[in-house]
Amino acid sequence: MANYRTKLRGYGVPGVMCNALKHKSPANQKSAKNVKKPRKAEVNYLPPYPAGEDEESQEQERIQLLTEVRKRDNNKLIKEKMAKTFAHRRNKIINLSPSIEDIKTRWPALFEPSQLQDEFHRITMVHLESKFMSKLDEYTPRLLNIFHSKGGTMGLRLQAILLKAPSNHSISMTRDVVIRCLMVYLGESTDQLLKEYDDADEDSVSQDLAVQRIKIYHIKTTTPEGPDDIGIVVEGVKVLTALGNFPRACSMVIGLAYAVNLAYPKEVRYTLEVFQKLLLELDYSKLSPKVNSLKNKLLA
User: Fold this and answer.
1) Are residues 279 and 172 part of one domain?
2) Where is this region: Disordered (predicted)?
3) Where are any strands of DSSP class E within 32-177?
4) Which of 34, 199, 230, 241 could form a disulfide with 28 if both were Cys (CB 3.0 to 4.6 A apart)?
5) pTM for this entry
6) Are the C-beta atoms of 157 and 184 separated by less than 8 Å?
7) Same domain, yes or no, for 271 and 140?
8) What is the DSSP string of 9-53?
9) How many CB atoms lie within 10 A of CB 177?
10) In angstroms, rounded to a whole number, what is the distance separating the alpha carbons of residues 109 and 68?
């Protein structure tokens, strides 16, 4: 096995070639610096180009895809082209680390919820939203018992959130409350993941969102009949809008982290670790002590 990676490099395997010194920038030309590798249990982290395809042919497909995105009722063709250009997209995102604005310009279809879920499935072989919600619902009764049994200052904070839920709440509201309580239980603040705006003017909201790194935003409507705007902003750019509710937006944050190769913000790393490892069961065996403790209580 001593020269295994050297042989793979000779065959042009992307997962090895990306870490060759000649492919690194001058500032990173050290063998152990800025190593690109799967860090969140990605199955298809850096796939090779399909047989008979190369960078030039895939780039032509990408340009055609930009035209198809502008057409109405064209989801089937867009889905096919997104699947066909998966390797090209991953190679550019992993190797070049472009800004989120550049990715959105080059691959606008990636920021549609359905296409984002397809991309997540291509990377991990896991269905994003359905898996996330089913595991959250499965753990909800046990999580509520854990929250209700907690005492002290944290117990008071948890009770304050639980008491705000209406008695006839929907499944979406239950999920919302459980996630908010989960963040408090893990010692993190909901404000670090969710930014809520009440009757704020559009200019002030835009200015505030422009400085956010990774946030779910919730702009409450001023009219009773109008729906609230719930979406996600990354690097000051709105990447997803009209997601409907906070739990769905949470699942999409994980999808974005995989699709555009984002690192988790340190302020909410435990919450996102629970989303990834306990709810989506990706890298389930490698848990931080805090999340491992929660897992043991859930399975007790």
Assistant:
1) yes
2) 22-59
3) none
4) 34
5) 0.88
6) yes
7) yes
8) HHTT-HHHHTTSGGGS-GGG-STTSS----SS--SSSSPPPPTT-
9) 23
10) 9
